[in-house]
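Page 42, continued from yesterday. The earlier attempt failed because a stray header line got pasted into the input along with the sequence. Redoing it now with the clean sequence only.
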Amino acid sequence: MKITIAERLNQLPPYLFAKIDALKAQAIRDGVDIIDLGIGDPDQPTPLRIRERMREAVEDRANHRYPSYQGLREFREAVARWYQRRFGVNLDPETEVLSLIGSKEGIAHIPLAFLNPGDICLVPDPGYPVYQAGTTLAGGLVHRLPLLPEKRFLPDLAQISDPAVLSKARLLFINYPNNPTAATAEPEFFRQVVDFAREHNIIVCHDNAYSEITFDGYQAPSFLQIEGAKEVGVEFHSLSKTYNMTGWRIGFVVGNAEIIAALGKVKTNIDSGIFQAVQRAGIEALNMDQECVREMCRLYQDRRDVLCQGLESLGLRVERPKATFYLWIKVPDGITSEAFTLRLLREAGIICTPGTGFGAWGEGFIRMALTIPKERMAEAVDRIRKIL
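This time it went through. Structure tokens are written below.
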């Protein structure tokens, strides 16, 4: 029997981080002492109070039944309270909050709710690969929005002048603080996005997973703080990075009730919700004192300064980010992002991510994650110094 896969799968590039994992595994088999600055997975433990609440919840047999599709009412209420405290945004937990099995899941599924074959999704480039993947799997077309250094890595919406694109565009993804560039956006940019979405009847999907990882006193805004934003869009959030819970798979989407209802309809036909014990732990995370988050930010800021100073001493160009736990680094002249990434792996045992893994406009950059101890970062700088 000949197995033929769907054409939509042939349209997907190899998932970036799976490819990096394969390269890393081979290097380890070859006996290389790897310094992994590639995938952004926090290295610190989930805070103790969250783990203790999880232990309690696992012992409660009521949490082992099918969960609510929307998520526990108590979890959605905790999300609404957190949004009010953090951003001053009021949400109806019944209609404007939906739990997700991590924000990645919701981002991947929302194109299924709004794109018909041939409809267009506006996607930042470089950007999180799932924006493109979800669009492709839904039968939609991707229109890439270049994120350029001279534009502070913000998309220039005014440059989308093709009437054929604007007439078919149904979704717009934005992401600030940004992965992979670590760029930030101010409220004025979000106001422009709201105006653009209203004019062209486009749904805005703001990926705000890194809003709590900030430095130097900076506080990232919410898209929903802007007047009219809830009329045109939603915001995705995750507990993964904020509370070192990447493996727990819990997140949420908030905002426009009609948009959330449509995404919820997709989810009721595809998944069965989040394990309730994880939701109980998530409630603890959102309700508790946030000193653990501030402590993590201090740790990442310290690491940022060590790695930035080291890379700058080598003549590499990198801006010190105000948010996320990534550095977006210009590669030396005369070498591509992928070639420089492979050289670092083969000659220095360092894993980073080529900018082109996030889109063609990522050429000329690599991304490094601040998710290893600063002593290993200093060692990475020494290794790079020997090969440059």
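Notes: The radius of gyration is 21 Å.
Reminder to self: strip header lines before submitting.
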